[in-house]
Specification:
Layout: E1 9-14, E2 19-24, E3 32-36, H1 47-50, E4 58-62, H2 78-91, E5 98-102, H3 104-115, E6 122-126, H4 140-155, H5 167-177, H6 183-191, E7 194-196, E8 202-204, H7 219-226, E9 233-238, H8 241-247, H9 256-267, E10 273-278, H10 285-288, H11 290-301
Parallel strand pairs: 3-4, 3-5, 5-6, 6-9, 9-10
Antiparallel strand pairs: 1-2, 2-4, 7-8
Helix pairs in contact: 2-3, 3-7, 5-6
């Protein structure tokens, strides 16, 4: 399989006590568009979502700390990541950006847009508001159990990312999980998402300690922040999203009707938000159904 021919520039920006790798996909002088990825991913992992937008926008992506070619400082808090984003926007002289964000990127962007509501043009969130609000999610026992899990995780010896034989094994695994991605897209994501494993072969390019970030904030906080956001918002989710949340144990006792009601409740938290559901997609909707996601984003951003 050939290497992809996609032009981009890497820029190093000093964030909150770490160096950040920023990908500039070109188009300077056009409206600014920032993409933020989720955990265990990297900036170019968002390419399947925004490939059709490059003609109309200046697209910038950030490898979040602990991911890609950014530093892995061990400090993974939501506050540090919001500060990193501010540093990137200031360093690149970005003005009134649009945002396309996924998962963890959604939590970062929601807080940023709440803090700086007059500086954002629009916000498209791909399954980035956290797990659904199931009964008892914010009860004292549930919060204590989550904190206990976080303490146990912090004390556990740090594991390494999966060891794979070579690039071809990584690419084979990736394409098997996401067959809807074009071959050149899959190659772009894998080639920029792996590094040499210290014991031979390759591994995914992220710090496994990043998972502790989910214990540094609450999803309830994101919901409160949503009420401060003034720009137009698009909430994209997959019709198999609930299966994903069930699979990781974060949608206890919730059926499809309750899930739909909870998603609509979240839409109403924003001053100006619309929702769309992508058929045949779970949490990684821009990998599961990239063409549908691109179409919906294009309609939203070009409206």
């Amino acid at each position: 399989m050939g290497r992809p021919m996609i032009d981009f520039e890497r820029i190093t920006v000093r964030g909150s006590n770490c160096d950040l790798s920023v990908v500039d996909l070109g188009g300077r002088g056009k409206p600014d568009l920032i993409v933020l990825h989720g955990t265990h991913d990297h900036a170019l992992g968002m390419y399947p979502a925004i490939a059709d937008l490059l003609e109309d926008f200046h697209v910038v992506g950030l490898d979040l700390r602990g991911h890609g070619r950014s530093d892995k400082p061990g400090n993974y808090s939501i506050l540090a990541m919001v500060a990193d984003l501010r540093a990137v926007i200031d360093a690149l002289d970005v003005h009134q950006p649009h945002f396309v964000v996924h998962s963890l990127g959604g939590h970062i962007a929601v807080r940023y847009a709440a803090i700086y509501p007059d500086e954002i043009s629009s916000l498209a969130i791909l399954d980035g508001m956290g797990p659904p609000l199931f009964p008892g999610a914010y009860s004292a026992p549930a919060l204590a159990a989550g904190l206990r899990m976080g303490v146990d995780g912090a004390l556990r010896p740090q594991r390494s990312a999966r060891q794979m034989t070579d690039r071809e094994e990584a690419l084979t695994r990736f394409t098997a999980n996401y067959p809807a991605l074009a071959p050149e897209c899959a190659a772009l994501i894998v080639d920029n998402g792996i590094e040499v494993h210290p014991q031979g072969g390759v591994r995914w390019r992220f710090d496994t300690a990043i998972d502790l970030i989910f214990h540094t904030y609450s999803d309830h906080e994101a919901e409160v922040m949503a009420g401060l956001i003034r720009c137009p918002v698009l909430l994209l989710g997959g019709d198999r999203a609930l299966d994903f949340w069930h699979g990781i144990g974060l949608a206890r006792g919730m059926d499809e009707a309750a899930f739909e009601a909870d998603q609509e409740r979240r839409r109403e938290l924003f001053a100006d938000a619309r929702r769309a559901v992508v058929e045949g997609a779970a949490h990684m909707l821009h990998y599961d159904q990239p063409a549908a996601v691109r179409r919906l984003l294009g309609e939203f951003l070009r409206a």
